[in-house]
């Protein structure tokens, strides 16, 4: 992990040097920023080099699908880059409207399941994302959810709000992270950051699963196992994988049934990794102990959704990377990817190149 941070720092510095020393960029190129709430730090990088168009609306929720959609269709013709500040899907219609000079889509997120990769690939459009810079913030939320579920924050907060505290030595007993087995599904940047943060918690064992063993795992003290072993042995199961056809609904009736009765499921990946009906049943029947979700399907989760009626769940509104510092870093990285792409340089964090 230290190695990773070091490499990230080096990339960071050398890329700013590249950007600063290049004088061949032209403001005649147009870049479209898809949402009015893209941070100023990223706007500054873009404005130094390009003519920047920005939507007057946010690219989220209803506004993102209605007014903003119209606005983007009007603004995109002739643009060379699209900075995508949303989890809304990138449509074929929008790409058609852009024209053949569109060279890059830069999504301001680590996940890119919403980016219509096959369509971008077919059109020869590059795609970059913003991994790594958000790993620490998302990992902090994973740990927060572990604590919140293991120590039953939902029920306890409810008691405080009602003014009816349970009393007695055996009141609202929770579970320890100390001595537990923590299983990470997907030991990428976020998964590794979770393990690193938990090292002070005196965890008994770290297990992980994925396509292949990770070289970083040895230093982290994490043991590679298959999915079944992870499911049957872990007290905490942390989902930190991207959403793909393979991972969609990977937590379902069958996989939930393999978990321990005291298992706590944490999801900081994507809501669609989990079959929420099956999760509801497992939590309701106490087949597992609790779930902590930063991501759901859909988002927002309707306030009358059955999952929210359960005491043994802790749900956050997808705030993993939502800190001032992290959002700034994501914006600057997304902007630098655009600068590089339109200047014939390699992307800093490529998905499609
Ligand atoms: C500079 O920009 C022009 C016009 O976009 C381009 O044709 C040329 O290849 C660029 N030169 C370098 C060294 O990047
Ligand atoms: C449940 O998840 C497992 C492992 O992720 C997968 O192999 C299986 O196909 C899934 N079953 C369903 C019904 O989605």
TrEMBL record:
Keywords: Oxidoreductase, Signal. The keyword Signal applies. One of its GO terms (cellular component) is cytosol. GO terms for molecular function: glyoxylate reductase (NADPH) activity; hydroxypyruvate reductase (NADH) activity; NAD binding. Residues 1-16 form the signal peptide. Residues 37-351 form the D-isomer specific 2-hydroxyacid dehydrogenase catalytic domain. InterPro entries: D-isomer_2-hydroxyacid_DH, D-isomer_2_OHA_DH_cat_dom, D-isomer_DH_CS, D-isomer_DH_NAD-bd, NAD(P)-bd_dom_sf. This is Glyoxylate reductase/hydroxypyruvate reductase.
């Amino acid at each position: 992990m230290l190695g990773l941070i070091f490499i990230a720092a080096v990339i960071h510095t050398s890329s700013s040097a590249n950007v600063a020393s290049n004088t061949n960029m032209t403001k005649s190129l147009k870049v479209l920023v898809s949402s009015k709430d893209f941070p100023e730090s990223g706007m500054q990088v873009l404005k130094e080099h390009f003519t920047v168009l920005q939507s007057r609306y946010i690219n989220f929720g209803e506004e993102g699908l209605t007014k903003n959609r119209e606005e983007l269709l009007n603004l995109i013709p002739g643009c060379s880059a699209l900075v995508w500040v949303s989890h809304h899907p990138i449509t074929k219609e929008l790409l058609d409207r852009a024209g053949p000079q569109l060279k890059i889509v830069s999504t301001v997120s680590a996940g890119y399941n919403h980016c219509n990769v096959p369509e971008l690939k077919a059109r020869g459009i590059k795609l970059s994302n913003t991994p790594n810079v958000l790993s620490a913030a998302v990992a902090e939320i994973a740990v927060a959810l572990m604590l919140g579920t293991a120590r039953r924050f939902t029920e306890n907060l409810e008691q405080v709000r009602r003014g009816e505290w349970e009393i007695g030595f055996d009141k609202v007993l929770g579970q320890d992270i100390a001595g537990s087995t923590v299983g990470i599904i997907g030991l990428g940047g976020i998964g590794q950051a979770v393990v690193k943060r938990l090292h002070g918690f005196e965890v008994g064992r770290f297990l992980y699963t994925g396509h292949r063993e990770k070289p970083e795992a040895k230093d982290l003290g994490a043991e590679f196992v298959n999915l079944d072993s992870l499911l049957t042995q872990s007290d905490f199961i942390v989902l930190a994988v991207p959403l793909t056809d393979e991972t969609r609904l990977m937590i379902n009736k069958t996989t939930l049934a393999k978990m321990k009765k005291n298992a706590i499921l944490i999801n900081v990946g994507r809501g669609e990794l989990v079959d929420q009906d099956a999760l509801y049943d497992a939590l309701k029947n106490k087949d597992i102990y609790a779930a902590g979700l930063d991501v759901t399907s859909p988002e927002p989760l309707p306030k009358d959704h059955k999952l929210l009626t359960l005491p043994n769940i802790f749900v956050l509104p997808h705030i993993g990377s939502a800190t001032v510092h992290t959002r700034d870093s994501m914006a600057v990285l997304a902007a630098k990817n655009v600068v590089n792409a339109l200047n014939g340089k390699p992307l800093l964090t490529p998905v499609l190149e």
